[in-house]
């Protein structure tokens, strides 16, 4: 709304000045984001000085179209001497749908005639009768607003207020008071008028009086909030509310994030008469207060038309007290969800709790209704947190109550031991206990059935602290479950008005010590509770006395019904071992209520007639199985659909030891094995029948594996295996990390980073050598230059025929190994695990081949004569084919071995352990060049040839042991290889057979000493010859090999330099370690690498510094 007051300054009442003032209001007063200024300010500044009324009117219409809805109020039009020209210039705005002109004037004939002549449609109305009070209210409100903005005008507040009242002179409308509501409504003026005209005349007058009345009272903002809250509850509530409940719910808006029972008591302490008086004074004639037949004062909105007006779809959101129905439902849902966290157990122990109980019952009955109708989801701001707070506040208390009542009923509800005259009274007392249990059951029904669980709730675990906190909230610091049952029994007795049979039974005798100490876990005891309840039903239902009692009560009192309800509920909860991932489905309780009808009558009759019509007594264990399968049907493992994919099944097969691994195993952190969950669930189903054959049959994970073989494996095994290769690689990689963690403990993280750097540097080195070698020996213009490939291929086939062990990684050839593993897998496995000599041959000839290869590369690069370079080129081509073959065979062999174990993997877990170790070695030693002898190649190019005399003997011993521990320790303490490391490894070498150690060491020294002697006379193709004495040049060369712009992602850590060799790492924060189990000791946490400046360290350090993301 923009307005112009005529009669203040005649010099500013020209049409140009009026339009400029209106444009200025739009640009500078109602545009907080300055969007309008960026669009129209430049034009306004150009035309402001020398602008015609037509240009200004066009600019005003443009800005108004952007705003969407503009009310133009021109007050005192008759006081403008040039009002005829004003009407003529403003007439061009009359056809704009975004602009509504409100021209205020005294009732003068000339003004009315010119007005009707300038505008086609004119609607006139009288405002004299409402002007006086509105003028005073608006003047006071605007003065207070001005003083807040400019405190220096506080001493002139009364003067300013009187000045505004004098200038108004009885013509300022109530629209000035509602300006804030009409501004930024974004609606067409016709829609606003249509909405206002929808009210009856008396309601329009009543609604406007309500708005104007707020400005005449103190605490205007506070009262305005209360009115809106009360109107939302009246419009959104599906049933009538009492005056006390409406007043309490309206006041709870101040602390809906944490409603407590004390807050509810504070707001419900007022009497009904006083609450009705306060609501009537606040809402005036918009509500009706009626008295119900039972004497309770109920409140409702005065007329349905007003409700439709307040929640009209086309109503502006800020027009007075209008709001959308979804906003009202969201408001009620937030408060109801907060009220649901109040303790029922506390409520039942208070006196005069009718109003408090009514509020809590309403919240639990209708919070889901409000939530669904609000259009919100748990992704909205604060909704997921509110829901989680509600769950946390009620879940622990409900579990305590269910546990206590269940134990009480299981062990002490023996109707056959009660005298006949007291049986009916006992049954009625139990029915009262059922009514007491109803709110807690309804809580969990709403939590687990009607509402989709939020992401935070799916991770919620009922831990020890949750139960203890719930107990403390309910009973105080020294409370226990015994006191809960005492209070329940006391409530039942006081409710009936006389002592109940339940109160005469001792409670300490049947409560286990674990419950008294609150140290139980739902996973371990809920299944036992459900089984005990079924046994109670079995003891009661077939007894003829039970039928007699039911006849005496007329069939309305059925304690078996409550037992079945509780047992089904607890059994369903216990049927899911992972509460945080598999929320229980409570479809069986969807019709549960505490009215006269009995939703479980059919089930109770089935139990009764089954036991009455049997010709032989039931065995307790057979009866337990029978009732369990009858009440909650569970699929047996033999009939479970094979829903697992081939990838999941192969992962489970390869990680077979997962079933026996501890909770702290790294498998459970990185690998999600679905079969392990299936296996655990099967065991939980049969945990109470540990002596039966089915439990022993399912106890072995191999049975679960074989029962869930996917159809893909049966139909297309090879295709399914190829699809599973990425999953197998993940498991092998995880196993490698676990072995590394067990070996080096807290040093695993920096060691893993160093391993990745070794891979990167080795790949860069090999690639540079390959490029340089290709440029020398491959010349497309000279066909003679690649004749050496003919000799290389010929040598390769000769090796394939007579020397299979040279350049390969097993004896016989890996391809023959694959054939043998399918023909006779057990013999193949024994040969692999006990025959170590082929490893020694491979180590020897691999190092010999590497040395000759680099010698040939150097000779080829240096040689200028074709005769000198031809022989090394032949060897390089021959060796390239061998390496290619070895890589391909390593991939196939490492991934196909699982197929060879299918026939016998389920009989010996130790074989699987050895197989995993062997597969890890294949992948990370043969394929990725991460073996210790492969690092020797890197040492040749980076540190010099003579260092091989000490390095390669150590490599041979480490590979012989097949132990990642020594490999990682060697990598970690790599800078100490010139001194102390030789002595440390000497202790290990002593344990080797003397002949093998001497053969390996002497052979390697001879071969690589000769290689070093020849390479010392060769050129230095990589410029690394003198890096032995200059660590800075070596570091610079390494940085070139490992550029910073291509980092490797190691895991959840920040981009930080690697760890120096002699630096003690600090532990990582828990937030950066990824998913960890709560009981993981601090000593097993992975350390965080810390940067150490190489210029500040003494002695010989790592020759390079790298960044790892």
UniProtKB/TrEMBL annotation:
Pfam family, one: NPHP3_N
Region (Disordered): 1059-1109
Biased composition (Polar residues): 1081-1098
Keyword Ligase tagged: no
Keywords: Membrane, Repeat, Transmembrane, Transmembrane helix
Nephrocystin 3-like N-terminal domain residues: 2-106
Domain of life where this protein originates: Eukaryota
Transmembrane domains' residue ranges: 864-881, 887-906, 918-937, 943-961, 973-992, 998-1019
Keyword Repeat listed: yes
PANTHER family noted in UniProt: AMELOGENIN (PTHR10039), NACHT DOMAIN-CONTAINING PROTEIN (PTHR10039:SF14)
Record protein name field: Nephrocystin 3-like N-terminal domain-containing protein
Organism: Mycena metata
């Amino acid at each position: 709304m923009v307005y112009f007051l005529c009669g203040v300054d005649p010099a500013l009442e020209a049409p140009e000045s009026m339009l400029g003032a209106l444009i200025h209001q739009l640009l500078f007063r109602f545009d907080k984001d300055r969007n309008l200024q960026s669009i129209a300010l430049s034009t306004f500044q150009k035309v402001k000085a020398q602008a015609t009324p037509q240009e200004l009117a066009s600019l005003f219409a443009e800005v108004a179209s952007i705003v969407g809805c503009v009310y133009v109020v021109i007050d005192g039009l008759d006081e403008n001497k040039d009002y005829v020209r004003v009407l003529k210039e403003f007439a061009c705005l009359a056809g704009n749908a975004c602009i509504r002109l409100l021209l205020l004037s005294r009732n003068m004939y000339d003004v009315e005639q010119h007005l009707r002549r300038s505008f086609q449609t004119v609607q006139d109305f009288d405002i004299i009768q409402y002007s006086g009070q509105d003028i005073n209210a608006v003047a006071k409100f605007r003065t207070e607003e001005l003083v807040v903005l400019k405190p220096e005008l506080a001493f002139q507040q009364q003067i300013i207020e009187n000045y505004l009242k004098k200038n108004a002179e009885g013509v300022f409308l109530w629209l000035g008071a509602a300006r804030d509501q009409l501004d930024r409504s974004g609606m067409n003026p016709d829609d606003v008028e249509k909405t206002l005209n929808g009210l009856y005349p008396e309601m329009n007058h009543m609604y406007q009086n309500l708005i104007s009345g707020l400005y005449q009272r103190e605490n205007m903002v506070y009262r305005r909030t209360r009115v809106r809250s009360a109107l939302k509850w009246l419009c959104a509530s599906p049933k009538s509310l009492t005056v006390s409940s409406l007043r309490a719910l309206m006041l709870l808006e101040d602390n809906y994030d944490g409603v407590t029972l004390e807050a509810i008591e504070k707001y419900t302490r007022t009497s009904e008469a006083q609450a009705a008086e306060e609501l009537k004074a606040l809402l005036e004639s918009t509500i009706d207060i009626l008295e119900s037949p039972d004497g309770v004062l109920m409140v409702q909105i005065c007329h349905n038309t007003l409700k439709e007006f307040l929640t009209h779809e086309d109503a502006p959101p800020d027009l007075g007290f209008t709001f959308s129905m979804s906003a009202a439902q969201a408001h009620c849902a937030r408060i109801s969800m907060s009220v649901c966290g109040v303790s029922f157990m506390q409520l039942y122990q208070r006196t005069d709790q009718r109003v408090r109980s009514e509020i809590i019952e309403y919240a639990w009955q209708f919070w889901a209704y409000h939530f669904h109708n609000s259009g919100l989801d748990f992704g909205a701001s604060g909704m997921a947190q509110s829901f989680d707070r509600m769950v946390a506040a009620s879940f622990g208390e409900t579990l305590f109550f269910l546990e206590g009542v269940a134990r009480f009923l299981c062990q002490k509800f023996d109707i056959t031991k009660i005298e006949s005259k007291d049986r009916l009274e006992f049954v009625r007392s139990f029915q009262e206990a059922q009514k007491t249990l109803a709110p807690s059951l309804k809580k969990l029904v709403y939590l687990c059935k009607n509402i989709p669980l939020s992401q935070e709730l799916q991770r919620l675990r009922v831990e020890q602290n949750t139960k203890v906190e719930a107990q403390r909230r309910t009973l105080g610091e020294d409370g226990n479950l015994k006191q809960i049952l005492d209070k329940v029994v006391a409530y039942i007795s006081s409710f009936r008005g006389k002592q109940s049979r339940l109160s005469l039974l001792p409670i300490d005798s049947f409560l286990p010590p674990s419950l008294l100490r609150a140290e139980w876990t739902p996973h371990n005891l809920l299944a036992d509770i459900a089984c005990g309840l079924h046994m109670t039903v079995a003891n009661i239902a077939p007894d003829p006395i039970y039928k007699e009692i039911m006849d005496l009560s007329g069939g309305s009192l059925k304690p078996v019904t409550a037992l079945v309800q509780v047992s089904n509920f607890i059994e369903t909860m216990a049927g899911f071992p992972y509460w945080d991932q598999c929320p229980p489905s409570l479809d069986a309780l969807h019709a549960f209520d505490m009215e006269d009808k009995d939703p479980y009558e059919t089930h109770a009759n089935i139990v009764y007639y089954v036991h009455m019509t049997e010709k032989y007594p039931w065995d307790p264990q057979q009866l337990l199985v029978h009732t369990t399968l009858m009440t909650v049907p569970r699929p047996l493992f033999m009939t479970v659909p094979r829903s697992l994919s081939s990838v999941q099944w192969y992962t489970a097969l390869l990680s077979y030891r997962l079933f026996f691994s501890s909770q702290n195993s790294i498998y459970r952190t990185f690998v999600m094995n679905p079969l392990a969950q299936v296996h655990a669930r099967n065991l939980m189903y049969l945990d109470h029948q540990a002596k039966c054959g089915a439990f022993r049959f399912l106890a072995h994970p191999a049975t679960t594996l074989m029962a869930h073989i996917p159809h893909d494996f049966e139909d297309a095994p090879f295709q399914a295996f190829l699809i599973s290769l990425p999953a197998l690689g993940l498991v092998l990689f995880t196993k490698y990390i676990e072995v590394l963690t067990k070996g080096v403990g807290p040093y695993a993280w920096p060691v893993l980073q160093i391993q990745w750097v070794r891979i990167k540097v080795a790949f860069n080195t090999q690639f540079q050598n390959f490029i340089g070698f290709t440029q020398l020996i491959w010349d497309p213009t000279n066909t003679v230059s690649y004749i050496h490939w003919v000799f290389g291929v010929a040598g390769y086939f000769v090796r394939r025929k007579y020397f299979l062990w040279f350049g390969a990684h097993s004896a016989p050839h890996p391809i023959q190994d694959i054939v043998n593993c399918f023909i006779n897998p057990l013999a193949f496995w024994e040969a692999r695990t006990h025959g170590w000599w082929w490893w020694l041959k491979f180590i020897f000839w691999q190092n010999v081949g590497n040395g000759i290869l680099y010698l040939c590369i150097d000779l080829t690069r240096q040689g200028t004569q074709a005769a000198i370079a031809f022989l090394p080129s032949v060897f390089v081509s021959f060796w390239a084919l061998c390496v290619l073959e070895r890589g391909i065979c390593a991939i196939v062999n490492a991934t196909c071995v699982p197929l060879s174990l299918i026939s016998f993997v389920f009989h010996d877990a130790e074989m699987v352990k050895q197989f995993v170790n062997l597969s890890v070695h294949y992948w990370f030693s043969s394929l990725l060049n991460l073996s210790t002898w492969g690092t020797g190649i890197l040492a040749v190019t980076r540190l010099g040839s003579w260092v091989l005399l000490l390095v390669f003997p150590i490599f041979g011993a480490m590979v012989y042991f097949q132990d990642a521990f020594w490999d990682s320790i060697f990598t970690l303490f790599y800078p100490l290889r010139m001194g102390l490391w030789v002595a440390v490894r000497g202790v290990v070498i002593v344990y080797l057979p003397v002949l093998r150690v001497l053969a390996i060491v002497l052979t390697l020294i001879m071969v690589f000493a000769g290689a070093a002697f020849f390479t010392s006379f060769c050129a230095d193709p990589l410029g690394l010859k003198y890096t032995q004495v200059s660590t800075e040049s070596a570091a610079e060369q390494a940085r070139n090999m490992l550029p910073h712009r291509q980092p490797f992602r190691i895991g959840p850590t920040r981009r930080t330099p690697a760890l120096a060799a002699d630096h003690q790492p600090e532990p990582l924060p828990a937030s950066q370690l990824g998913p960890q189990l709560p009981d993981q000791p601090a000593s097993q946490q992975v350390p965080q690498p810390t940067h150490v400046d190489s210029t500040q360290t003494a002695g010989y350090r790592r020759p390079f510094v790298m960044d790892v993301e």
